[in-house]
Amino acid sequence: MARKPAKPASPKALAATPKTAKPKAKATKPAKLETATSAPPVLADVRGKIDQIDRDIQSLIAERARFAHQVGKAKGKLAAAVDYYRPEREAQVLRMVVDRNEGPLSDELLVHVYREIMSACLAQQEPLKIGYLGPEGTFSQQAVLKHFGRSALGLPMASIEEVFQEVEAGNADFGVVPVENSGQGTIQITLDMFLTSNLKICGEAELRVQQYIMSRSGHLEDIERIYAHPQSFMQTSAWLRANLPNAEKIPVSSNAEGARRARNADDAAAIGGENAGHVYNLKKVVTKPIQNDADNTTRFLVIGRSLFPSSGHDRTSVLVLIHDKPGALFDVLSPFARHGISMNRIESRPSHHGKWEYGFFIDLSGHIDDAPMQAALAELEGHAAQIKVLGSYPVAVP
After folding, report:
1. In three state form, how does the secondary structure of the chain look?
2. pTM, full prediction
3. Which of 210, 310, 370, 371 has the fewest CB atoms within 10 Å, counting from its CB?
4. Where is this region: Disordered (predicted)?
């Protein structure tokens, strides 16, 4: 017999038929993140890694010092430490430090570290002797430490004139002198010294200047007289008018000298930096700096007996004495404009060669050996009574 065809399943039966289950997708676990709930690192392991890094750093510093000594040998037998010092090379090294820096430490901190390493390496030959406006504790001393490091030997002098004299005589290898302040302008005595001195500018340093009022007792109501350098009185004039209008203001040769005097009486105070307060055991009368300008900065010049090669980012300072005639200043400045040389600063001072005759101190971008600079100065010769190149030196590393 023929088999009957099967009846199609009813919709109800189809609904009752179990479906083949699809495989469930495997849940993806989130990536493990370093969070506050993660297991903290083992302190001993972290310290062990730091110790190994310190050993590596110390080994590399020692290796650098050995190579620095080899550089000294390669230069041959030289007369003194000053003959081994190359400011243009130091500037190049520090700029590379800044260019390589990707944090987390600041450029300023790394520059300071490398400056000290280079200072110590150079001192293997013999420490540099650096004259500065003393006594100990002045901003000039801080500028010496910033530019030359703590391995240099600082020689405090009684005046800016004496710094020039000691460098000229060879008793100091270099000198550091203030030249201008961002708020109060030029230190005139420094420019006047260049009118007669044959020394050259070999470098520059910029120092943030924080002025404090300090005394032996530390109490504002005790103060009847204040010692400070005249520049510091000008830089803090607003605070002094508001808080000590009746106190006697006694100018001295340096803020450190003022601090030295103020330590002897409770009714005396001094204006200066924290370093001077530490040296002469003075207390801050107020905790905050008192200068008018929060960004108060002083520029210092490094003076020596020689010119140095280009560092690649330099400044040239010249002194130009002009004839007294109409358009004389235009004749002085136009050659630099024609040769594409930027002028950073110009300052006039009496020339001391004749009544109403002036010299112009001009800071220019570039090195004296650059072709545009040479061309501009050659063109200037026909318009100036005298041209004196004061120095070509690396621009301060920020």
Report:
1. CCCCCCCCCCHHHHHHCCCCCCCCCCCCCCCCCCCCCCCCCCHHHHHHHHHHHHHHHHHHHHHHHHHHHHHHHHCCCCCCHHHCCCHHHHHHHHHHHHHHCCCCCCHHHHHHHHHHHHHHHHCCCCCCEEEEECCCCCHHHHHHHHHHCCCCEEEEECCHHHHHHHHHHCCCCEEEEEEEECCCEECHHHHHHHHHCCCEEEEEEEEECCCEEEECCCCHHHCCEEEECHHHHHHCHHHHHHHCCCCEEEECCCHHHHHHHHCCCCCEEEEECHHHHHHCCCEECCCCCCCCCCCCEEEEEEEECCCCCCCCCEEEEEEEEECCCCCHHHHHHHHHHHCCCCEEEEEEEECCCCCCCEEEEEEEECCCCCHHHHHHHHHHCCCEEEEEEEEEEECCCC
2. 0.82
3. 371
4. 1-36
